[in-house]
From TrEMBL:
Residues 26-247 form the Nudix hydrolase domain. The lineage of its organism: Bacteria, Bacillati, Actinomycetota, Actinomycetes, Streptosporangiales. This is 8-oxo-dGTP pyrophosphatase MutT (NUDIX family). PROSITE patterns: NUDIX. Transmembrane segments: none annotated. Its cofactor is Mn(2+); Mg(2+). It comes from Nonomuraea endophytica.
Length: 287
């Protein structure tokens, strides 16, 4: 038997939707960013290869945050930074460097306006939830440090929406660096959920000089983990991962370095998990 067993309430909702008794909730556009960094050097022996001695890296690490158990969506889950597109994320006033919204739209099969909002939301939400800012004073530079009190004030203003992202960049003389993002995947929340998101996943390297920090808000814990380590913790029941996070970590676990992971040309295919009844039991099928 395959798929993920659904709890009773979701199983009943799935049957109601299939029978036409309930209409699915529309999915909101959202963006998620997998922040990557190279893992630390460890002393040998090497795991494989002809040379057995000396330090080596165990592969990339990813930044994860645990959503508070009081959150309405994905409570207690370990996730990547991200969130819904703010209507102001589509503002043409956002200073931009790198691939254009039109080019991003072609990658994600979205119109130019939607693509602009997705990329802006990716950069904005990453800053809000990790303190990492994929922007710089020029097209070939990136902010080196975002840890001061003035940065924190701007971050909180972005969160409470008293400051628009375009105004934040203009105030600091910065341009969004869309070239620092790599398209990774496209997931849509199953129709059986009461809160649904149409989410494009991006990947990005932690910029030199910047560091993530526990910024609070929707998360109560943050951690850097090797993908294989996070997967093992999930299999042991020590942490909870939603299917898109688990799937992404499983993909990343195959790479020996951040460079290798980002060098792969990915074809973006939309993944929409669906509820299927198998031998009287409702199960969620991811593929």
């Amino acid at each position: 038997m395959t798929g993920i067993p659904l709890p009773k309430d979701l199983a009943e909702r799935a049957r109601d939707i299939a029978a036409g008794r309930i209409e699915p909730v529309p999915a909101r556009d959202a963006a998620t960013v997998v922040i990557l960094r190279e893992g630390p050097f460890r002393e040998g022996p090497f795991r494989e290869g002809p040379f057995r001695e000396g330090p080596f890296r165990e592969g990339p690490e990813v930044y994860l945050l645990r959503r508070k158990t009081t959150m309405a969506f994905a409570a207690g889950a370990y996730v990547f930074p991200g969130g819904s597109v703010d209507p102001r994320d589509t503002d043409h006033a956002v200073a931009w460097a790198g691939p254009s919204p039109r080019e991003w739209g072609e990658v994600f099969n979205a119109d130019e306006r939607t693509a602009r909002g997705l990329v802006c939301a990716a950069v904005r939400e990453t800053f809000e939830e990790s303190g990492v800012l994929l922007a710089g004073p020029g097209t070939d530079s990136v902010v080196a440090d975002t840890t001061g009190a003035d940065w924190e004030a701007d971050r909180l203003a972005l969160i409470d929406r008293s400051l628009a992202f375009a105004d934040f960049l203009a105030k600091r003389g910065l341009v969004l660096r869309s070239d620092l993002l790599k398209p990774w995947s496209h997931w849509i929340t199953p129709v059986i959920e009461e809160r649904r998101f149409d989410t494009r996943f991006f990947a990005a390297v932690l910029p030199p000089g910047q560091r993530t920090r526990d910024v609070g808000g929707e998360a109560d814990q943050v951690a850097w983990k090797r993908p294989s380590e996070a997967l093992e913790l999930a299999r042991d029941g020590e942490i909870f991962l939603m299917p898109p996070t688990y799937h992404t970590l499983n993909e990343l676990a195959a790479f020996a370095s951040v460079t290798d992971a980002l060098a792969v040309q990915r074809k973006i295919i939309t993944i929409l998990p669906r509820a299927v009844e198998i031998e009287g039991e409702m199960r969620l099928m991811v593929s």
